[in-house]
Design a protein that fits this description.
The complex is a heterodimer of chains A (317) and B (661). With 317 residues, chain A is α/β, with parallel strands linked by helices. Chain A has two domains: 171 residues, D-Maltodextrin-Binding Protein, domain 2, CATH 3.40.190; 117 residues, 3-Layer(aba) Sandwich (D-Maltodextrin-Binding Protein, domain 2). Chain A is globular, with a radius of gyration of 22 Å. Chain B is mainly α and 661 residues long. Chain B is 79% helix and 0% strand. Chain B is built from 31 helices and no strands. In chain B, helix 9 packs across helix 12. The longest helix of chain B has 34 residues. The relative contact order of chain B is 0.11. Classes of the chains: A alpha/beta (317), B mainly alpha (661).
Chain lengths: 317, 661
């Protein structure tokens, strides 16, 4: 699988120097992973279709969104079109450091992950979205096991969100309960909304949930890089994490380290691919709300955004 | 560990023949250490951090060695496994091409759905009767009409490829084990561990050594399906009567002929049950295999669940169950069908009536396909969906049942779960080790004592003792509740043939229903937390206890029951004084299986949100830590094996005493 003739590598290096005109792509199939959330699947098909237009052969492989980084390291998967800083930053940065995966491009889309509540909760606690207001009505969120404290439903522990540290640093009257998966978060949210029960939980944007339920992020003291290392920063002088999450997390495209050598033309296209928050939201909506199949949704998005992706293909952005 | 407490108490009540002193000896060290916990030195209560044996590092070194170093001079172990895995792509492509994808390279379309339906019906008829024919044809039609065609045929092609491969490998292992005692003593413990290792700990090694993608999913399925076949092969071949073997020898069979023409045909039933188990295991893997890239119903199900489309996910689940029930019935029918013989002068048609009918179906469906495209693919505008119904049902349940269930939830949590959890966490680890070792000694002597003690010590020194305790607590509570609910259901269902039938059907359905689906409604009703996790475990782990109770009660020798009736027993006396004691060893084996099921589900319950080993396994997945995943998996497997070894030892000796074995 990893056998290259010298000539091919030379060609690849030349290609880098001289631009995509002289490049010769390998005829091997480019493997694009498919995970279990809609925007990623649609995005994967869009990327795949664009690479096909550029002459590549692609294949879609379904895989777990965590296992995929091991797979990309081994070259079993060639790229990943949605690397979320919050959820996959750790796994991604680990394989980049090992040198087997490269950071190919960064989308314009900014990701934000924060405590979130559906809009009817806003009426129950006057002063929201300020975190102080949330804290003042913590008892409305309490359950048998957290009473008298409020219950915050956090994301899976391995997403490393430091919610418990924040609760302590800000002296909040909340207890963090960690869900085991994104699906668990949505199940509880759906159930609570059905009964108009107060709930505050971990959520992020862009995300299909925005299209299903209205709601807002809680506003914490603004993030600062110093906040997570320097205890003296912020309102709490003894503890770190007395601030919210960054409002502009990255959404990246990752590629197997051999990708640029093997498929220089395809790589040039891949580096141009760039989705905004709106793109990701629309891609998710086409599937989740309009009930399209992911492949149809990709075709629809491509048809609606012809002007943009043609620029990505020709390299005249 | 949960099981040992169970056993210990069972000994009190049900073994008056055992001297009380023996059970006291088992319990005394435990009670002593438990009560003296506050006076014990710290190292005897909590496993000291610096006592941790770096199993994880060793496992990682091993994985890296296998991945990077050339062991056979020319290539690494990883190249070898990957090369071997590549072989499966061929049969997969052929079967998938036939069923759904077609062969675009040579311009051949896939089989029309009408043809597959007809052939499936014929197969059912051939193997049993028109009812099975109806079931299999109906199953195929369901996939087409409810729009699951492509997904289900992809899943079916994985099963059709993986099951024979797993069956053959298991069969080979089984034969080798029967013929070579050293191999048996090597492979049986390995099979035990493999069968109780949580599936998720395999995933990273599979990603490393095989890769991800559809073929890796198929390989994962093969790996999971091998153990039952190997086990049943061993069981079947060992069960061949000595007289039969002798007869073969007298007829002058060579060793190979003895195996091939005498032993294997006599063990046919047991081998075919093995095949049946392999198929069921393959279907149970549909969802988990999609984590490493298997396409089909499983992947789609996870995707729908993630998008909160519960109705559509349930529909996929129903499709999997239907496929499982049909394949189960077909393979069972094949197991019970005896070879038939036709007169030698019969015509071709008389000899092969079903082959002729199959040819007719093929021709007919091809003809129809030429007339209308609807015979090739079910038209998508006529696709039905039950999803809105399921969604409405789930909504109704969450709104109406939520209130009353909250009272139950809070009571459970405050008065049962939290106290028990605190109790578990307060038990010194030395006390648990002492209890398990003493129980092993009492039930099976020194050898068993050392084995189970070894398991406990591994868990203790692997560095995840506290997490293991939480797992043990959840499993214990769930198993206790399962017994409380499951025994009466089993007793009720064993009363008549009809009830048994209903209970069996329900058990089959719940067992093949992808367990991931239970998670969502359970969260909606009980919120993320221990109650939700334990409820999910109960739903799944209830199955074996009900099954084995029914089996045990119905298999009590009729003479003994007759004897009871003639001596004037009331129904109550018949149940409690005759049938229950005689069925009890079987019921204990059911509890054993319940523990195994609970351990399987407790790992899946990490998707809800727990603080136990399952959660650590997922964390290992996040950090691509194959070694940690494996070691944690071994912790879970050893928990299960501890219970398994103890209960099996008890049940065997008990059966012998009752004259049942």
């Amino acid at each position: 699988m990893k056998i290259f003739t010298n000539a091919a590598s030379v060609a690849a290096i030349m290609a880098f120097a001289a631009g995509p005109v002289f490049a010769q792509d390998s005829t091997d199939v480019i493997k694009i992973p498919i995970h279990n959330w809609s925007s990623q699947i649609v995005g994967a098909h869009i990327v795949g279709k664009l690479l096909e237009k550029g002459g590549a052969k692609v294949e879609y492989v379904s895989s777990d969104s965590q296992v995929v980084y091991t797979a990309m390291c081994e070259g079993d998967v060639s790229l990943e079109n949605e690397v979320w800083e919050g959820a996959f930053g750790v796994a991604f940065e680990k394989v980049v450091k090992e040198g087997c995966v490269i950071d190919a491009a960064t989308h314009d889309a900014k990701t934000r992950e924060e405590w979130w509540y559906p809009s009817y909760v806003g009426e129950m606690c006057p002063g929201l979205p300020a975190w102080e207001a949330l804290n003042a009505c913590a008892d409305k969120f309490s359950t048998a096991e957290t009473a008298p404290k409020g219950r915050f439903l956090g994301g899976p522990v391995d997403w490393l969100k430091h919610d418990a540290e924040r609760v302590e640093a800000l002296g909040m009257n909340f207890e963090v309960v960690n869900a085991g998966s994104a699906a668990a978060l949505w199940a509880e949210l759906a159930s609570a909304v059905e009964r108009k029960e107060p709930i505050v939980l971990f959520n992020w944007t862009p995300n299909f949930v925005e299209a299903l339920y209205e709601g807002k992020f809680v506003e914490f003291p603004a993030y600062d890089p110093k906040c997570k290392d320097d205890p003296s920063w912020g309102t709490n002088k003894e503890l770190t994490y007395d601030c919210g999450n960054p409002k502009d997390g990255y959404l990246k495209i990752a590629a197997w380290k051999e990708f640029p050598n093997k498929w220089p033309k395809a790589y040039a296209i891949l580096q141009k691919v760039n989705f905004s928050n709106m793109d990701v939201a629309v891609q998710a909506k086409l599937v989740d709300i309009d009930n399209m199949e992911p492949e149809q949704a990709a075709d629809k998005w491509l048809a609606d955004n012809q002007g943009r992706w043609q620029g990505w293909l020709t390299g005249t952005n | 560990m949960s099981a040992t407490t169970l056993i210990a108490s069972e000994q009190h009540q049900d073994k008056p023949s055992t001297p009380l002193t023996k059970s006291l000896i088992v319990l005394l060290p435990f009670l002593f250490l438990l009560l003296a916990a506050s006076m014990l030195p710290d190292w005897a209560v909590q496993v000291p951090k610096n006592w941790t044996v770096p199993f994880v590092d060793w496992a990682n070194v091993l994985v890296e060695h296998l991945r990077d170093d050339t062991v056979f001079g020319l290539f690494s172990f990883r190249d070898l496994t990957r090369g071997a895995a590549e072989l499966i792509t061929w049969p997969l492509a052929i079967v998938e091409g036939l069923l759904v994808a077609g062969f675009p390279a040579i311009g051949l379309p896939a089989m029309p759905w009408l043809m597959i339906m007809g052939l499936a019906g014929l197969l059912g008829w051939h193997l049993r009767d028109w009812r099975l024919a109806l079931l299999s044809a109906g199953c195929v039609a369901y996939m087409a009409i409810f729009g699951k065609w492509e997904l289900s045929m992809i899943t079916l092609s994985v099963v059709l490829v993986a099951a024979p491969i797993a069956g053959l490998i298991g069969f080979g292992i089984g034969i080798l084990a029967v013929k070579r005692p050293w191999f048996e003593s090597l492979v049986v413990p390995l099979l035990n561990v493999l069968q109780s290792l949580p599936h998720f700990s395999y995933l990273i090694p599979i990603a490393v050594f095989i890769g991800v993608g559809h073929k890796a999913g198929a390989i994962a399925t093969v790996i999971f399906a091998i153990p039952p076949m190997a086990r049943l092969t061993i069981l079947g071949l060992k069960g061949v009567a000595e007289e039969v073997r002798e007869a073969g020898k007298m007829a002058g069979c060579t060793r190979f002929q003895t195996l091939w023409m005498v032993e294997i045909p006599s063990a046919r039933q047991s081998l075919l049950v093995g095949v049946n188990q392999v198929i069921m295991q393959c279907l149970a893997m549909v969802v988990i295999a999609s984590f490493v890239g298997a396409r089909g119903l499983g992947h789609d199900l996870l995707f729908r669940l993630q998008a909160l489309k519960i109705g559509q996910a349930l529909e996929n689940g129903v499709a999997i169950v239907l496929m499982a029930i049909t394949l189960d019935q077909l393979s069972r029918a094949a197991a019970y069908k005896q070879p038939s013989h036709v007169a030698p002068d019969a015509s071709w048609l008389q000899r092969f009536p079903f082959l002729a009918a199959a040819a007719l179906v093929v021709l007919g469906s091809l003809l129809l396909t030429a007339i209308t495209p609807y015979a090739q693919n079910w038209p998508s505008q006529f696709t039905l969906s039950t999803a809105p119904f399921w969604d409405a049902l789930v909504r109704w349940v969450t709104v109406t049942l939520y209130g009353p269930l909250q009272v139950l939830r809070n009571a459970m949590l405050l008065y049962v779960l939290i106290p028990i959890r605190d109790l578990f966490q307060g038990i010194p680890w030395t006390a648990i080790a002492a209890l398990v070792a003493a129980a092993g000694w009492a039930l099976g002597g020194l050898r068993l004592a050392l084995t189970v003690l070894g398991f406990v010590l591994f868990i203790a020194f692997a560095g995840y003792w506290e997490r293991s305790l939480i797992t043990a607590y959840m499993v214990t509570v769930a198993v206790l509740i399962c017994v409380i609910i499951g025994l009466p259901i089993g007793i009720w269902a064993s009363r008549s043939e009809r009830r048994t039938g209903i209970a069996k059907l329900l058990c089959d359905t719940f067992q093949t229903f992808p367990s991931f689906i239970y998670l969502i409604p359970v969260i909606m009703l009980f919120k993320v937390g221990d109650v939700a996790a334990i409820s999910a475990i109960i739903i799944y782990a209830l199955i074996p206890i009900v099954r084995y109770t029914i089996f045990g009660l119905r298999n009590v020798p009729a003479e003994i029951v007759e004897a009871g009736i003639t001596s004037g027993c009331t129904r109550r006396q018949l149940l409690w004084n005759i049938r229950m004691p005689l069925a009890f060893p079987e019921i204990m084996l059911g509890i054993n299986q319940t523990i195994m099921f609970a351990l399987f589900m407790v790992i899946i319950a990490a998707f809800i949100g727990t603080k136990d080993i399952g959660q650590e396994i997922f964390r290992a997945l996040t950090f691509n830590d194959a070694g940690k995943g494996l070691v944690l998996g071994l912790c879970v497997a050893f928990m299960g094996l501890t219970a398994d070894q103890l209960i099996t030892a008890w049940a065997t000796s008990r059966k012998r005493r009752l004259g049942l074995a």
